[in-house]
Structures are given as structure tokens and as C-alpha cells.
Specification:
The complex is a heterodimer of chains A (304) and B (256). Chain A is 74% helix and 0% strand. Chain A has helices at 2-27, 35-52, 57-71, 73-81, 85-104, 126-149, 151-162, 164-169, 174-200, 210-223, 230-246, 252-273, 289-303. Chain B has a single domain (3-249), classed as Rossmann fold. The chains are: A mainly alpha (304), B alpha/beta (256).
Chain lengths: 304, 256
């Protein structure tokens, strides 16, 4: 039972992460892969504040999310100058740079990780209460993104994603939208990180590396980029799938790389065969259109 | 007449290729200027420099009384520039009406805070923009297409949508890049009429077009560009009478 509840907590965290990543990548078309670093910033900042300054946990969680929001400038400002593949590179640099700092600082616990983080709630039904909390937060995250991308603001986001130059030439400010999308998306990731830290009481730098970027990308692509429910479906599937594999009883030396293989295979096959993801309609792919369209084109040419 | 757009000693080169060589030009209110020249003469580059797609190396650009050459694109657009593109550049995952709504001067979805806290003004802006878009679609003869995806229309129809989209903001200056490409028959007359009406309303219009008879029909003044230089200015007939210019247009060498 405890195991199931823990998996559900992970699902909730991943729903928040994938949904917020979808806001940036899927809807905004902003090719950043640095999303896990804001997850890390939320987790570490909140954890450290609670440990060293004895700040009450609920408050430290909010501050952690706030710091992630502010530090999103680290990616949103480069995104004003570079886009597409170049932004991917800039964001990887930002992610690995901060990760390197965390890995080498004494007070963040360096590579060994940050331990003894105060938990948010205690008691016999602690996990159940936490699952309910995270379900509410995840639902709010999905609704918030749904609200942002519909209507007048959503129309502007779509237009910016379709053609930023034409959008700007019509007098619309793409800079504002990028900063807002990164701030909200990263703040949500920071919130997820802080919640994680105060549930598991332990975080390590390796949780927030490129592998996590790949996992989140897989959730968004498989579920359906630029759709409301896609990231949710993707997060549920790709959190339970690795858990299911563990029951196969494979040795760890095979298990760990197997996950990576599964993620990359899924991303590539979906971009080729079903760029709109599981939940997307006939057209779609959102911000991944550029990649998926060329993939689909190659596939079509091979078919002829 | 007063100058809406003034370009002074504008210079731009990419490596060895000069796309604007000390260009001096102005577009007056109510005037339609035709911009002609062979491919690679720098016509579209001039539009890109004025609208802010590329930054100039030297020189100044004024829109009405504002100096705009260091301003970002959206700022220039708000001051009073609107342009269309050679390859239409529709927002491809959006409907025709949504393509137009984006371009309105007071966009309802400009900020999330406004949407949250000033619902009523947002609704009013949207109402105003939708009505305006309907009128414009009617004027370019595509009112029946408003709910179709812009990308699914023909090239000529997309050109007309692009023109309507550029008119949404009531900009003082219109830069039209080959508005006639792919446009035939009835639509040809429609576009000429719309452009004339906009000029009569006091806008400065500059049209890049390879269709010389269209330029002759519509422009008050024609400017000939070659290798980034403005070589001559006058009526189409004056320009075509100059054998040196016609040679250049049809692929001659620059007279050094």
C-alpha cells in the first residue's frame, strides 16, 4: 500500500512537471530542455531554507517555487536572442552549469545529496494525505495551463509559436510572452521539486540531469504536445511503465540503461509515426512541429 | 503632404553584399509609392530594415516624428508600421479570423493580468477587433472564409488575408511585399481598390511588385532600386523610357 501511494506521489509530481514543460515546449514552442533544473532549484531551495533557517515547510515550498520562477530568467533571457536548436544548447548549458554548482557545494550536500529535509506532514496516514494534496496541486496545474492557453492569450501564444517574426511585425510583444511562459512553467516545476523534497526528505543532483529532461520530453511527446491532457496521460504512463518493469526482476545493470532505451525509442517512434501524441487530434505536435514535420516528411518519402 | 516614413542614409551589408547603399527615401501621407527593381535589388531588404527584421549598419529611420531604427519590431509596428510578406506568413495552425485578431491595435490577450482583472475591457477589445476583422474580410472578398484554416487557402487568398491582417492596426504606413503574386481576376481589382482606399484615408503606402502594369495602375511615384541603391524615381513611363534602367531590370550590369 505504501508502495502504491509512493508511486502515486511520483505520478502527481510528474504530471505537474510534464504539464508545465508542455506550456513552455509544446504551446510556447520554446525549445528548452532545462526544465528539471527548476525542479532542482525548487527542491534544494525549499529544503535548505527549511533545514538551515527553520522556515515552516509550507512557506519554504512557496519560496522555493518563487525562486525557481525568478531564476527562469536564466533561460528566458537567452530565448529572446536565440531559438530552436540554439536554445536547446543554451538551456543545456544553463542546466548542467547549475547542476555542477550543486554537485560541488558543501552546503547542498554535493554529490551525496541533501538529506534530512523536514517532511511536510507526519502521522500514520501521511502518504495518503500527501497523495490527496499532490492530486489537488496537479489538477490545479493542468487547469492553470489550460486557462493560459485558451482564449485571447492562447491565440497570441500560438501565433508566436507559428511565426515569431510575423507576430512581432504585427505589434505584438513576443518577449513578454516568453518571459511569462518560462516564469509560470518554471515556477510550477519548482513547486513540484519542493513538494518532492518535503515528501522523500532526500534529493540528489543526479535526479535533475539530462536523463530527467529526456523523461519529461518523452511524457510530453507521447501524451501529445500542445494538448491539455497529453502530458497527464504521458506522465501516468511513463511513471508506471518503469515501475512495472521492476517486477520483471532484471538485474540493475540492465534495468537502468533499459529505461533510457525505452524513453528514446518512444520519443523517436512517436515523432515519426504519431507526432500529435496519444491524445492529439489530426494536426498537432505544437512546438515540436518542426521536428515532427521533418520526420513525417522523411517517412512519407520512404513510403513512396 | 507630410512624410510618414523617412529613411536617411540607410546602409546595410551582409559581408560583401550591399543590400542598402545610402538609401534616402520618404513616403508621404496619402501617397502610393511603387518600388521596383530586379531580384536582389534590395527591395525586400529595405522593408526588413524599416520594419525591424534586420538592424541597419548605419543611417536613420523615422516614422512620423519617432526615430525607430533602434527599436524592436513590435514597437515600430505600434508606432505606425504594418507590412505584408512575400510568402504570406500566415499563422498556420490558426483560422483566418484569428490571424486577423492578432493584428489589432488593442489586442485583448496582451497580458494575463488584464485578462484576469479587467474582463470587461478585454471583452470590449475583442468585440471591437472582431467587428473590424469582419469588415476587412468583407473588403478583400473573403468573408466566407473566416473560419477556415488560413494555411488551407490558395496562395492568392492568403495574400489577401495578409493584406487584411496588415490593415487591422490602422498603421500610418503600409509596406506591401508583392501583394499581387498569385492574385488573379476579380481579386486583382479588389486589391487595387483596397490599396487606393487606404491611401485616400491618409496612409503612406509602399508596394514592391514585379507586375509593372500593376505598379503603373496604382502608384503615384515609382522608385527604381538596383544593388541596394535608389537609382531613379518618377512615373513608370519615365523609368521605362530610360533604356539604361530597362537593361538593368532585365539583367544588365551596374553602370560604373
Amino acid at each position: 500500500m505504501e508502495y502504491l501511494l509512493t508511486v502515486m506521489v511520483l505520478i502527481g509530481i510528474n504530471v505537474i512537471l510534464a504539464t508545465s514543460f508542455n506550456l513552455i515546449l509544446g504551446y510556447g514552442g520554446l525549445m528548452s530542455v532545462a526544465h528539471p533544473i527548476f525542479y532542482a532549484i525548487g527542491a534544494y531551495c525549499s529544503g535548505l531554507l527549511a533545514i538551515h533557517l527553520q522556515i515552516p515547510v509550507p512557506l519554504s515550498i512557496l519560496i522555493g517555487a518563487g525562486i525557481a520562477m525568478v531564476l527562469s530568467f536564466g533561460v528566458s533571457l537567452p530565448s529572446l536572442r536565440v531559438s530552436g536548436d540554439y536554445l536547446v544548447i543554451a538551456s543545456i548549458g544553463f542546466q548542467l552549469g547549475i547542476l555542477h554548482v550543486i554537485n560541488n557545494l558543501e552546503f547542498t550536500g554535493a554529490a551525496g545529496g541533501l538529506t534530512n529535509i523536514p517532511v511536510l506532514n507526519e502521522g500514520p496516514s501521511r502518504s495518503l494525505v500527501f497523495v490527496l494534496l499532490i492530486a489537488v496541486v496537479a489538477a490545479c496545474a493542468v487547469m492553470l495551463v489550460g486557462w493560459i492557453v485558451e482564449g485571447d492569450y492562447g491565440r497570441a501564444i500560438t501565433a508566436m509559436r507559428n511565426d515569431e517574426e510575423a507576430f512581432s511585425a504585427l505589434g505584438r510583444n513576443a518577449m513578454n510572452i516568453k518571459i511569462v511562459l518560462f516564469a509560470i512553467g518554471s515556477g510550477m516545476a519548482g513547486l513540484a521539486g519542493a513538494l518532492y523534497a518535503h515528501y522523500f526528505a532526500y534529493v540528489t543532483p543526479e535526479q535533475f540531469g539530462i536523463f530527467t529532461s529526456a523523461a519529461l520530453l518523452t511524457m510530453v511527446v507521447v501524451g501529445g504536445a500542445a494538448t491539455t491532457w497529453g502530458p497527464l496521460v504521458g506522465a501516468v504512463l511513463l511513471t508506471t511503465l518503469p515501475q512495472a518493469i521492476t517486477f520483471l526482476g532484471l538485474p540493475v545493470s540492465i534495468m537502468a540503461p533499459l529505461q533510457g532505451v525505452i524513453y528514446t525509442t518512444l520519443v523517436i517512434s512517436f515523432l515519426f509515426a504519431r507526432p500529435q501524441g496519444l491524445t492529439g487530434g489530426t494536426r498537432g505536435g505544437g512546438g515540436l512541429e518542426a521536428w515532427s514535420a521533418s520526420a513525417a516528411f522523411r517517412a512519407r518519402r520512404r513510403a513512396e | 503632404m507630410s512624410a510618414i516614413v523617412r529613411v536617411e542614409d540607410l546602409h546595410k551589408s551582409f559581408g560583401g553584399i550591399v543590400v542598402a547603399d545610402d538609401v534616402n527615401l520618404s513616403f508621404e501621407a496619402g501617397e502610393i509609392v511603387g518600388l521596383i527593381g530586379p531580384n536582389g535589388a534590395g527591395k525586400t531588404s529595405l522593408f526588413n530594415l524599416i520594419s525591424g527584421v534586420i538592424p541597419p549598419d548605419a543611417g536613420a529611420i523615422f516614422v512620423e516624428s519617432h526615430r525607430v531604427d533602434q527599436l524592436p519590431m513590435h514597437h515600430r509596428a505600434r508606432i505606425g508600421l504594418a507590412r505584408t510578406w512575400q510568402n504570406t506568413r500566415m499563422f498556420h495552425s490558426m483560422s483566418v479570423i484569428d490571424n486577423l485578431l492578432i493584428a489589432t491595435r488593442r489586442y485583448p490577450g496582451e497580458s494575463l493580468a488584464r485578462i484576469l482583472f479587467r474582463r470587461r475591457s478585454v471583452d470590449a477589445f475583442r468585440q471591437e477587433a472582431t467587428e473590424k476583422a469582419m469588415v476587412l474580410l468583407e473588403r478583400v472578398g473573403l468573408a466566407d472564409k473566416m473560419h477556415e484554416m488560413a494555411i488551407e487557402l490558395s496562395y492568392g487568398q492568403q495574400k489577401r488575408i495578409g493584406l487584411a491582417r496588415a490593415l487591422m492596426s490602422d498603421a500610418a504606413c503600409l509596406l506591401l511585399d508583392e501583394p499581387m503574386a498569385g492574385v488573379e481576376g476579380q481579386a486583382y481589382e479588389t486589391i487595387i481598390r483596397v490599396i487606393r482606399e487606404e491611401a485616400q484615408a491618409g496612409r503612406a503606402v509602399c508596394v514592391v511588385e514585379h507586375n509593372i502594369s500593376f505598379i503603373r495602375d496604382i502608384s503615384d511615384r515609382t522608385v527604381f532600386m538596383f544593388n541596394g541603391c535608389v537609382l531613379a524615381s518618377g512615373s513608370v513611363d519615365e523609368l521605362t523610357r530610360d533604356s539604361q534602367l530597362t537593361d538593368l531590370y532585365f539583367g544588365g550590369e551596374h553602370p560604373q
